[in-house]
Design a protein that fits this description.
The chain is an alpha/beta fold. The chain has helices at residues 22-43, 59-70, 90-95, 120-132, 190-203, 208-229, and strands spanning 4-11, 14-21, 47-52, 78-82, 97-99, 105-107, 137-141, 146-152, 158-163, 182-187, 235-239, 245-249. The strands form four sheets. The protein has a six-stranded mixed sheet with strand order 4-9-3-10-11-12, with helices on one face. It has a two-stranded antiparallel sheet with strand order 1-2. A hairpin with a 4-residue loop joins β7 (137-141) and β8 (146-152).
Amino acid sequence: MNELQSFSFSINGLVTRVCYGKEEIHSLFLPLISALRKRQAEKEKRLIVFLAAPPGAGKSTLASFFAFLSQNDGGTHIEALGLDGFHYHQDYILSHQAKDFAGNLRPMKEIKGSPETFDLARFREKLLALQAGDPPWPVYDRTLHDVVEDKLFPTSPIVILEGNWLLLREKGWEELSALADLSIFIRAEEGLLKKRLIARKIQGGLSRKEAETFYQTGDGPNVLRALQGSREGDLILSLSEEGRFSLVKGKELLCGGKTSHENPLVF
């Protein structure tokens, strides 16, 4: 039986509560962390991992959970950083237009969250700095609905960088993959993501009708763009209807990972 454990994290200014199963923790998450540590030790420099997924797949929470696990077993710490801190600032978004994926010129606020609303050049510059040192990192604060500069100061030798567009096969974005040492992509059915995203908007205060409308014009196109337009990661995780993760691709990369009885963590 895959007994569930509850955990709470502060992500982008909001407290997020999530449940993971003991089975996925001990058979997937902990071996993955062990494999990342092994790779970093072999590299002898900072290891940068891309964790990409469509909206609603739980990537931000999962990255934070990996960081939590790594900080409680005496091994090399992992830090979680996000792409969302490279959104253009809200005042810029409110005063500018951008072409959407279909090529239509629209107010940028209507497509916020799409690749066109990110400062890609600045992100690439910061990513290169992260390879070489410890640059301050911006975050997107969901209580402010805006970017907060220089909020995090990464120092760990392993960094998991999460974002919707990190593995996107589009000009400008596709070149970024060369800057990652390892990549992970989360797959999920569009219907499941739709249900999760609508529920999230309702929890945030929208009516069901408003949430469904927002999905059609905002989240929905981004979900399809991420699912259909991203390249495969070195590892692929699948998100089930019950919210559990399983490994679809990359088992060989986890070879040498600790089994549950070897890891001192107890849940």
